[in-house]
Specification:
Radius of gyration: 33 Å
EC number: 2.7.13.3
CATH class of the largest domain: Alpha Beta
CATH topology of the largest domain: Beta-Lactamase
Number of strands: 14
Shape: flat
Strand content: 5-15%
Catalytic activity: ATP + protein L-histidine = ADP + protein N-phospho-L-histidine
GO molecular function: ATP binding; phosphorelay sensor kinase activity
Keywords: ATP-binding, Kinase, Nucleotide-binding, Phosphoprotein, Transferase, Two-component regulatory system
Pfam families: HATPase_c
Helix content: 40-55%
Length: 653
């Protein structure tokens, strides 16, 4: 078991080694464009990606595209790649790979693709952050006991003297020769290199030309991927943190979509198994579920050795890692040792691992269970990506669990369900650019210093991004859970109007040649309401007014105190100088209809606006003439203390 488990542990370590950011970025571009051939060709230039994805060829199949995207986005990337040890190691690996492939073409029995892989990965142990590796360990990642060991030998013995490999397999000989030519300045003048060239047969001059070509191609690819050894472009810490944050969140989004594609528990666990291998190098896993007699037995949800079926771990054992995970509902780790429960030692031996981590979960039929992942990297239980993957697993199982527990038969999706699913996917995707925008606002705020006007504008942008995020979250929650009422704020209506005008001046009003006037009554009392609702209504009205004035015009916002139905009210008027509304449109103004404007207009803006105003216990009306349209919002001027309020900051005012 020792050699096998050691090999598996090294494969999990492989997922922690850094990749070249330029190669990862280009691979993501090919994945997004659907060019599988270009994607496969691109990852061949990065030793870590090549080894990881070579072991998982199924990731290139269409059904695993979201997982592959997650793998690329979550891959650690090297910093300062052009200069320093990383760039130097990469350029050497590419030169050896190009030359080894060229030499393999002159040597019978040497496979060119295997020569390339051995060349790219020959010095992986010399890369930064790879100090725990050795040439022998790198060789173990490609060693297959069921196949000829020539590739692993080429990696293991590439730096040995040429004389020692004189009668070895041709693949080892060409990789040895390529390594000597690239790394030894006087190689072409040495007796051993000339003898190795002559055995191909090649002369010193021809060998020199192949070396020059290999270095030229390596240099061209270094320019392509930003690894040419020139000065790295300046980048601040904040920008690097932002890039890492975006990559992590985008990886989460890709994994979320990957698990959403699973339609039953079998598919959920199949996706889980693929994700374990692709993201963490975990090749051995099992599920133990609570069975009759309050014992944990293997469940046929993940493929596992049949010998495990003979084991039954009492749930209340208290000593086994499995039972402790169930009892504490928290992850537990098995590392071996004299004090370990013998059943855990037996499970590890049967699985062929030296350690494992146990994660409690609930199966679709409602039973408690434990997921075992073999030979993970140290500290995996605290890794954000690991925790996110387990959360996605639990979420993917939950809908199935609810349906089965209720004895329901899960029907095929109906036409309206498909439409709903598309809407939910779109809503989910909206969250990613919102996060990017929010992070960029924070980054700009840090860079631009204490300029009060700039910080005020950035504050408005940040508030608007968060408002859109709350709207999106509200839509996704509304389908399955009642949305709790948001706390009311003591809102200054004048502040909301001023903030809206300032926010839209350069993006909506000025570009459309609309002059804006405001006439605000300074004596308005604060209103207890949800600020986002009022802001959304005012923006809808302003946007409609601008669209009505296609040649430009004037837009006026007015606030005042008034009385209506023997009640104090605050009026907000939005008046434009457009051509007015046709009678047929005015008659159905607040009904949800198909818009005639085209583009991104859904015909819902005014219907939504009236609904939002009514939620604020107000009224929305409209008066339209050929000289323009006047929209009037009336909100009850309730006095403080009549409803619970929360005191908050109003945007950046």
């Amino acid at each position: 078991m020792g050699d096998d488990s050691n090999k598996l542990l090294q494969k999990s370590q492989l997922t922690t080694l850094p990749c070249a950011p330029g190669i990862v970025a280009e691979a993501l571009g090919h994945l997004s464009s659907g060019d599988a051939a270009a994607l496969a060709a691109c990852v061949r230039f990065d030793p870590v990606l090549l080894l990881r994805l070579r072991a998982l060829p199924e990731l290139f199949e269409p059904q695993h595209q979201d997982l592959l995207r997650g793998v690329l986005l979550a891959a650690p990337v090297a910093a300062g790649v052009a200069q320093g040890p990383y760039g130097a190691a990469w350029r050497q690996s590419l030169a050896v790979a190009h030359l080894a492939r060229a030499l393999a073409g002159r040597c019978a029995g040497a496979d060119a693709d295997a020569a390339w892989l051995a060349g790219v990965a020959h010095n992986l142990a010399d890369y930064p952050a790879a100090d725990a590796c050795s040439a022998a360990q790198v060789a173990a990642w490609v060693d297959d006991p069921d196949a000829a060991p020539w590739l692993a030998d080429a990696l293991r013995y590439h730096a040995e003297p040429l004389a020692r490999g004189r009668a070895a397999h041709p693949l080892l000989r060409v990789v040895q020769l390529a390594f000597q030519l690239v790394t030894r300045p006087d190689a072409l003048d040495s007796v051993d290199v000339r003898a190795a060239l002559a055995a191909l047969p090649l002369g010193a001059a021809e060998g020199g030309q192949l070396l020059a070509d290999a270095r030229l191609q390596a240099g061209q690819h270094a320019e392509r991927f930003g690894l040419a050894g020139t000065q790295d472009p300046p980048s601040g810490e904040a920008l690097e943190r932002l890039a890492r944050l975006y990559a992590a969140q985008a990886a989460h989004a890709a994994l979320h979509e990957y698990f959403r594609e699973a339609r039953d528990a079998a598919q959920v666990f199949a996706h889980c198994s693929h994700a374990f291998g692709a993201l963490f190098g975990i090749e051995r896993a099992a599920v133990f579920a609570v069975a009759e007699g309050a014992v944990l037995r293997p469940a046929a949800l993940l493929p596992a050795p049949a010998a495990l079926d003979a084991l039954a771990v009492p749930v209340d054992d208290g000593h086994s890692t499995l039972s402790r995970a169930i009892a504490g509902q928290a992850p537990q780790s098995f590392e071996g040792g004299d004090a370990a429960a013998l059943v855990d030692v037996q499970i590890a031996r049967v699985l062929g691992v030296s350690s494992f981590v146990c994660q409690p979960l609930v199966l679709p039929d409602g039973r408690s269970a434990v997921l075992l992942a073999g030979d993970p990297v140290p500290g995996i239980a605290g890794a954000p990506l690991w925790r996110f993957l387990l959360a996605e697993l639990a979420t993917a199982l939950q809908p199935v669990s609810v349906a089965l527990a209720a004895g329901a038969i899960v029907p095929e999706p109906a036409a309206d369900a498909i439409s709903r699913d598309r809407v939910r996917r779109a809503i989910h995707e909206v969250a990613n650019p919102l996060t990017i925008m929010r992070n960029y606002v924070n980054l700009l705020s840090d860079r631009l210093g204490a300029d009060s006007s700039v910080q005020r504008d950035l504050g408005i942008i940040g508030d608007e991004i968060e408002r859109v995020a709350r709207i999106v979250r509200g839509i996704t929650l509304a389908e399955e859970h009642p949305v709790p009422s948001a706390p009311l704020e003591a809102v200054s209506v004048n502040s909301v109007v001023s903030e809206l005008v300032r926010m839209a001046l350069g993006t909506l009003f000025t570009p459309n040649k609309v002059n804006v006037q405001i006439d605000l009554n300074p004596n308005l009392p604060p209103l207890p309401l949800q600020k986002d609702l009022l802001k959304q209504v005012l923006f809808n009205l302003a946007k409609n007014a601008v669209e009505a004035m296609q040649a430009g015009g004037q837009l006026k916002f007015t606030t005042r105190l008034a009385r209506a139905n023997e009640q104090s009210v605050i009026e907000i008027e939005v008046a434009d100088t457009g051509p007015g509304l046709p009678a047929a449109v005015a008659a159905r103004l607040f009904e949800p209809v198909v818009s005639e404007k085209g583009g991104d207009h859904a015909g819902l803006g005014l219907a939504i606006s009236r609904n939002l105003v009514e939620r604020m216990n107000g009224q929305l009306s409209c008066t339209s003439t050929p000289q323009g349209s006047h929209f009037l919002i009336r909100l009850p001027a309730l006095q403080g203390g009549q409803v619970p309020l929360t005191t908050t900051r109003y945007g950046s005012m």
